[in-house]
């Protein structure tokens, strides 16, 4: 079972809309305040990456149920330039040292599952899930 | 577990709310240590605080509870910074272990056997600044009363310097001729270094060929810190200056060589710039200081002198070396 909704990211204000969407869904699913803050921080980070590096893209929020456990899935998809060195952006200290925020390692820490697919010149697709415990 | 910590926190907080004593604050700080050791993130602490307050003072205005939610949001990135720090610390530890292994490999790789020649007492010491040594002592001894010594210093420190030094070692291994003369040895190693190292790596090297029968040391230098000779008869030190470019600068470089004859109790002192470039509060340690240290122990064995000079220089610099330190003394006995 899944139920989805999405926000197009084009301006910085769309980041706020994506956060709002994520928070509403997280709240409805029963996530506590701290986890809501973690989920929205992850959404913020992914949406900002789209806004800064791809120019435009989409944040999609899905409700998941697996083996009777509910969860939230964030999909960040863009048709931007792609990430040339994925190992580097997943390294601690790479993005944070430049003051860019939590970076992708941060998103990975905030969520339970994290998958990234990127092709140069075609775009990037990131999927991050958090389960309700 | 979380619930247990939460109720403990509530208890400690309640104590403090009843009585704002230093004692109760101290208990709170001790509890925070436990939280840190269990990797509790700051946002969880605030959430726990909010929950405890809600149980203790349920009729607070809504604005207070909102303020905690805001604070939780503020703390998420601090929590991430903390986790990142923990993972970086772990990586640092992994690197430290790796460096230790590499240093062991280097020690085995660069080990050399001190020659034993009639009438020659040799003392030596090579201490790296960090784990890996960018200085190197290499002996070639092939019997027949000859021995060669190379003392080299890679410009730079640590791992890159150590990797570069392995190459010098293999160059020396391939020569393996104790009767070879310095100009030949230096040109050969120069070609190897020039070919295999990038443009920013240079090596300085002193090479000496000693003949036991005559007591003659033939020496050459590739931009290395000049060696010195101590004349027992006059009690004076002289610099053994000889021309030669650093290794790795030009494949065409040629190396001058000179001879010096050692008489009884004369000493040749070979060193790297880590010995002469030490700094004290008063300024650089100059040659004069080193000469005086050697003179104070001139009647001891070469190894005793070397160790004494090192100990004294370390003491003068408050136990802080500024570079790899290598010192060799040849003493004619």
UniProtKB/TrEMBL annotation, chain A:
Segments forming domain Histidine kinase/HSP90-like ATPase: 34-133
Pfam families: HATPase_c (PF02518)
InterPro entries, per the entry: HATPase_C_sf, HATPase_dom
Coiled coil region boundaries: none
Name of protein: Anti-sigma regulatory factor
Source species of the chain: Planomicrobium okeanokoites (Planococcus okeanokoites)
From TrEMBL, chain B:
Keyword Hydrolase found: yes
Alphabetical list of SUPFAM superfamilies matching this protein: KaiA/RbsU domain, PP2C-like
One Pfam family in the UniProt entry: SpoIIE
Origin superkingdom: Bacteria
Enzyme Commission code(s) on record: 3.1.3.16
Keyword set, alphabetical order: Hydrolase
InterPro entries per the UniProt record, alphabetical: Bact_Sigma-Reg, KaiA/RbsU_helical_domain_sf, PPM-type-like_dom_sf, PPM-type_phosphatase-like_dom, PSer_Pase_RsbU_N
Originating species: Planomicrobium okeanokoites (Planococcus okeanokoites)
Top enzyme class: hydrolase
Keyword hit for Hydrolase: yes
Protein name in UniProt: PP2C family protein-serine/threonine phosphatase
GO function terms (MF aspect): protein serine/threonine phosphatase activity
Limits of the PPM-type phosphatase domain: 115-330, 117-332
């Amino acid at each position: 079972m899944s139920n989805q909704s999405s926000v197009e990211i084009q301006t910085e204000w769309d980041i706020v809309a994506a956060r709002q969407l994520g928070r509403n869904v997280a709240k409805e699913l029963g996530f506590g305040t701290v986890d809501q803050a973690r989920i929205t921080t992850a959404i913020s980070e992914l949406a900002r990456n789209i806004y800064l590096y791809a120019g435009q893209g989409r944040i999609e929020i899905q409700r998941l149920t697996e083996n009777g456990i509910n969860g939230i899935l964030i999909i960040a998809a863009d048709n931007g330039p792609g990430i040339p060195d994925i190992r580097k952006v997943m390294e601690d200290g790479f993005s944070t040292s430049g003051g860019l925020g939590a970076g992708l390692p941060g998103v990975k820490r905030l969520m339970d599952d994290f998958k990234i697919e990127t092709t140069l010149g075609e775009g990037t697709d990131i999927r991050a899930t958090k389960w309700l415990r | 577990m979380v619930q247990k910590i939460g109720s403990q926190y509530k208890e400690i907080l309640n104590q403090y709310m009843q009585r704002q004593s230093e004692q109760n604050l101290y208990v709170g700080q001790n509890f925070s240590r436990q939280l840190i050791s269990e990797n509790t993130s700051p946002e969880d602490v605030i959430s726990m605080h909010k929950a405890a307050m809600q149980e203790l003072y349920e009729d607070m205005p809504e604005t207070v509870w909102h303020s905690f939610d805001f604070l939780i949001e503020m703390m998420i990135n601090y929590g991430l910074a903390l986790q990142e720090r923990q993972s970086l610390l772990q990586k640092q530890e992994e690197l430290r272990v790796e460096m230790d292994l590499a240093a062991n490999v280097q020690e085995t790789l660069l080990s050399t056997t001190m020659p034993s020649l009639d009438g020659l007492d040799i003392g030596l010491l090579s201490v790296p600044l960090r784990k890996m040594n960018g200085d190197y002592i290499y002996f070639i001894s092939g019997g027949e009363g000859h021995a060669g010594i190379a003392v080299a210093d890679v410009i730079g420190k640590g791992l890159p310097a150590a990797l570069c030094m392995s190459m010098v070692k293999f160059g020396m291994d391939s020569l393996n001729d104790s009767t070879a003369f310095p100009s030949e040895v230096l040109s050969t190693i120069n070609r190897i270094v020039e070919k295999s190292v990038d443009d920013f790596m240079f090596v300085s090297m002193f090479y000496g060929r000693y003949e036991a029968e005559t007591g003659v040391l033939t020496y050459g230098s590739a931009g290395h810190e000049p060696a010195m000779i101590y004349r027992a008869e006059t009690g004076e030190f002289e610099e053994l200056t000889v021309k030669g470019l650093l290794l790795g600068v030009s494949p065409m470089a040629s190396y001058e060589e000179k001879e010096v004859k050692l008489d009884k109790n004369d000493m040749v002192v070979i060193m790297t710039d880590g010995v002469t470039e030490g700094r004290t509060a008063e300024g650089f340690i100059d040659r004069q200081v080193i000469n005086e240290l050697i003179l104070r122990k001139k009647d001891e064995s070469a190894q005793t002198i070397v160790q004494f000079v090192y100990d004294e220089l370390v003491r003068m610099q408050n136990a802080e070396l500024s570079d790899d330190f290598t010192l060799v003394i040849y003493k004619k006995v």
